[in-house]
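Exam revision sheet. Question 4 asks you to relate a sequence to its structure. Input first:
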Amino acid sequence: RTDEARLDASDAIRVLEQCPPGVQLARAYAEMSAAAMLGDDAEQTTTWGEKAIALAGRIGDTEALASALNNVGFVELSGGELRGMDKLERSLELARAAGLATDVGRAYINLCAALSRLGRHRDMARYVKPGIEYCQERGLDAWTNCLIAARAENQLSRGLWDQAAETASSIINAPPNPVIGPISDALLVRALVRARRGDPDPHGPLERVRTIGDSVGDLQFLGAVAAARAECAWLDGRTLR
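Answer key, C-alpha cells:
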C-alpha cells in the first residue's frame, strides 16, 4: 500500500517541518525515501534519503540513519554504483549493533535484491543464508519469507532448477500471508522453471502474479511479471506479439 504510505509520510513531513527538527522528522524523511524506493523512484529515494541521513547524523538517530542508508544504498547498488554496497553494509552494521532487528532483516533483503539485479548471484548467495538464520531466530516471518524467495531466485539464476522449484514451493504452499512480495517472487520462479524446462503450465503462476501486480500497481511487481511473460513468450516461440 505504498501510495497510502507516501501520502502519510508527506502529511507527517508537512507538519514536522514546522517544528524544530528532531527524531520524528528524520524518520518521516526515511519513510518517504522507503516509499519511493518501493515505487522504483530512484531520484525521490535519494532526495529524501539524503535528507534523512543528514538530519539523523546531526541528531544521532540510528534508526533513521540505518533506514535511509538502506534505501539510498539499494537504489545506488541496483543502478550499478558500487558505493551503494558500502551504505547497505553500514546500514546492516548499525542496525545489528542497535538491536534493530527489522532493519537488519531489510538490509539483508535489499543486499540480495540489488545484487540479483546486477547479476552478481554468487555474491548474493553469501547474504541469503545468514539473513534467513538471523530472521528465523527472531521470529521475523515476513522477512524470512522474503529471503527464502530470494534464495529461490538465486537458485534459478544459477541453473539449480530443481532446488529453485522446491524452495519456491515452500512459499507457495505455506499458509496465506498478507505480505505479497514473497508469494509473488515464488510464483515467478515456479513459472520460469516450468518454462525453461518445458514443463506444463508456466502461464498459470504468471496470471496469479499479474493479478497481484495489478492490485498493487507498483513497478517492482509489474516490471518483474512483464519480464517473465516476455521470456515465456520467447521460449514458446511467440516473438512477434
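Marking note for examiners. The chain is about 80% helix and 0% strand.
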